[in-house]
Amino acid sequence: MYQYNGEEIFVIDGHVHLWDATEENIKHQGGEEFIQCFYDYHTTFTPEERQWSIDEYRRYGADRMVEDLFGNAAADMAIFQPTYLTDFYTEGFNTTEQNAELATEHPERFVLNGTFDPRDGDEGLEYLEELHDEYRIPGVKLYTAEWRGDSKGWRLDDEEAFEFLEKCSELGIENIHAHKGPTIRPLNRDAFDVADIDDAASSFPELNFVVEHVGLPRLDDFCWIAAQENNVYGGLAVAAPFAQNRPGKFSEIMSELLWWLGEDRILFGSDYALWNPDWLVEEVVEAELTQEDRIEYGVEWDLETKRKVMGENAADLYDIDIEEKRRAFREDEISLQFDLEDHYASEEPAPADD
After folding, report:
1. What's the pLDDT tens digit per position in 46-56?
2. Which of 95, 134, 144, 321 to pair with 218, CA 20 to 30 A apart?
3. Is 93 exposed, middle or buried (0-12, 13-18, 19+ CB in 10 A)?
4. How far apart are CA 10 and CA 6, in angstroms?
5. Contact criterion met (CB below 8 Å) for 277 and 316
6. Which residue would you say has higher pLDDT here, 307 or 353?
């Protein structure tokens, strides 16, 4: 748990990946362009002394991921959001099955989500059922700009997509995470447009739609949709690192989100390994809204709000009992590995290392 002015904040990183972008796994030029674009995002928004080399970035492996997420207790849990990109990568960029190897090794620490692509038709519906039967996935991550043959994307409000959302509802897969906003070379920006969330959210009020990246740069469009649909949430991945080197922009984004959505529908995510929670959590928690934004929007980035955004809101969506988790983490394998037993056991846990 992160320590903030002597208070504990339980952190659930709502957006993490374990990817393979090695040259051996790339089968299409788009795969190389994709990882190079990711690396540009990484170096732009990461402190120089914390930046990785491109070789580290291509494939970092399970052991490093566990240490980066949990080694200094910056994050307490994490949610896997798969990104297949099988037209670009021979074995996929990070699939549910690949993520499952680590998630099943540490089920108390990871939530495993699946995916669907409506272009797969009946075969895709069967695959979604298989993921549910095998892993009991509570959510899916959707990539509407993913290339598939001659297709360069799909829409969440298409008739075919609605068949998959109906299947999610039937199976009890309640959390629908959609990448909406930032484009990644060579994918198309318009295929990541947030507009198709509106009809989907209205048509499936029993599902929760977490718009990852809060639609950036279309923040206004996202906020106007989310203000009308109370089952639409904002995922802070990509928005969060602005806290590090664009604090004024971060203040503006958070103020807009808090004013339109309120403090109960915003979720923290690092987008690991785009950025590393071992420094990002501190940047976000310690950030402050500008005086101008506090006056204009009438919102606060205070302790109660930080607790909700950094973990409690995700816990509500995924039925995670934070107190039960804290007790379990006093002696789980990861706490033993990183000497964190006292951190979770004492009434006043030791501060996590920077």
Report:
1. 999 999 999 99
2. 95
3. buried
4. 13
5. no
6. 307
- What are phi and psi for residue 89, nearest 5 degrees? -125, 135
- Are the C-beta atoms of residues 213 and 181 closer than 8 Å to each other? yes
The single residue listed with the structure tokens 């099955």 is: 97
Domain ranges in the chain?
2-344
Q: Which residues contact 125 (CB under 8 A, 6 or more apart)?
A: 116, 163, 164, 167
Q: What are phi and psi of 33, to 5 degrees?
A: -65, -40
Q: Average pLDDT for residues 60-86, to the nearest whole number?
A: 97
- What is the per-residue pLDDT across 227-268, written as a single tens digit (0 to 9) for each? 999 999 999 999 999 999 999 999 999 999 999 999 999 999
Mean pLDDT over 258-281 rounds to 98
Average pLDDT for residues 137-151, to the nearest whole number?
97
CA angle 275, 279, 284 (to 5 degrees): 90
pLDDT at 198: 97
Which H or E element spans position 307? helix 303-307
Sheet containing strand 12-16, edge to edge, reads: 12-16, 77-80, 110-112
Query: What is the three-state SS of 36-82?
Result: HHHHHHHHHCCCHHHCCCHHHHHCCHHHHHHHHHHCCCCCCEEEECC
Looking at residue 345, what is its pLDDT? 85
Residues, the chain: 354
Residue 136 CA from chain centroid, whole number: 19
Question: For the chain, how big is the Rg over CA atoms in Å?
Answer: 19
Within 8 A by CB and 6+ apart from 166, the residues are 204
Instruction: Write the CATH number of the domain with boundaries 2-344.
Output: 3.20.20.140
* pLDDT for the residue numbered 352: 47
Whether pTM exceeds 0.90: yes
Report the relative pairing of strands 110-112 and 139-142 from DSSP bridges: unpaired
Residues β-bridged to residue 4? 7
- Tens of pLDDT along 172-218? 999 999 999 899 999 998 999 999 999 999 999 999 999 999 999 99
